[in-house]
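Service request form, structural biology core

Requester: graduate student, group of Dr. S.
Request type: structure prediction, single chain
Budget code: on file
Notes: please return the result as structure tokens.

Sequence provided:
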Amino acid sequence: MTSSADFLQYIDQHSQKFIDRLAEAVAIPSVSADAAHRTDVIRMSQWLDGQLKSLGVETRLADLGTHVMDGQELPLPPVVLGKIGNDSKKKTVLVYGHYDVQPAEKSDGWDTEPFVLTIDEKSGRMFGRGATDDKGPVLGWLNVLEAHQALGLELPVNIRFCFEGMEETDSDPLDRLLQSEVSKGSDSWFAGVDCVCISDNYWLNTRTPCLTYGLRGIIGFKLTISGPARDLHSGGFGRMVHEPMTDLIYLMGKLVTPDGRILIPGVEEMVVPADAEERELYEKLDYTIQDVEEAVGAPITISNDKATVLMGRMRMPSLSLHGIEGAFSGPGGKTVIPSTVSGKFSLRLVPPQTPETIEKLVVPYLEQEFAKLNSKNKMKIESMGGGKPWAADYKHWNYEAAIRATKAIYNRSPDLTREGGSIPVTLSFSESLGVNVLLLPMGRGDDGAHSTNEKLDRSNFIEGTKLLGTYLYEIAAIAT
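Core staff response, request fulfilled:
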């Protein structure tokens, strides 16, 4: 079953209306990380709720209570839940997105006002905070609903919506809501869900659509070395005392090699090497060493082998050193021996690794290495929290439907990718509901989510809307 020609034609004919609606959404500065904008985030939830209701969706604004931010007790933005269709003969798809955005000020370096959707007519780029992350994709689903309502077409599947307003800050309240709903069994808002679709990531490049079936997890650490009661003059105490910075640099140097190999015993060994079939997936991806070099602005890839580099980002763990707290970092020289310094580093994790299993390897390793120094300083290692990795079965019918839809809209097969970063809610849905989760991106790899001049290409918004609708038809058509 393919999407009807009437549906595709409607999307093309009403593209300006859809862009105008996106402009309305972008104009609401729903910055969840700024207490001053909390009323705007809540206003965005109400706007979205009204849009869904006007399109025939039964909605519920799920109250999440309050939390403390910047010393203030604030209401948490509600989760916007939606429900349309209850046909037991149809599959039920849960759609997730978020309506909050990252902070943005024109003074940050934006070329345009961040909360005014500004369109470059020549390139088709639509600039505005939230355009691609994640208001554009969320409104893509609304565009699909509008087309079916206007044309009098029956939706091919039942749909459940879950749109949150704290994704950019803290998704823990959503996790609690999920657990609460699942405990209701057949009375749960998510009862009967067959699969999940999330559009909150991006193509690997600017050329080729992709489907994402894996995300790395993360755990961060703070390694602190303390010694003297105060900072010391190196002329008066150099080579007289154990220096915290010397110990810290030595220990940080024992974590990872320049070619990325993790030195903590047991970390690398947890990961099964890729077989020939899986390696072929990476070799086929439309991504080159040159793409990496252009992205980072220098020819510094660890290897010249594309598959090795891509697996380093997508299916292998990595350890990165982020910074040192307490050390002198200003201009000029300062001959001080700092009394306490903290090094910060994190590991990106892949299945079957978890933050808990990695912490049990990292802490004793650093304790052993510190003991070898015979230093009289003190060491403290703290976990800074983390999240589990996620990987889905890309041979599942959910992915097959998305592959067919991509071929129908873009006339090419999508790349199958794993992302190096983390979207914790993906694992939450997978574990809570026990169903396959698909990441189906709308935007391109150069959209600049979280950055200045965030954009969404007009073609990606319109063709992406067609893709979302066609995916639903392919879900309905596929045998399970």
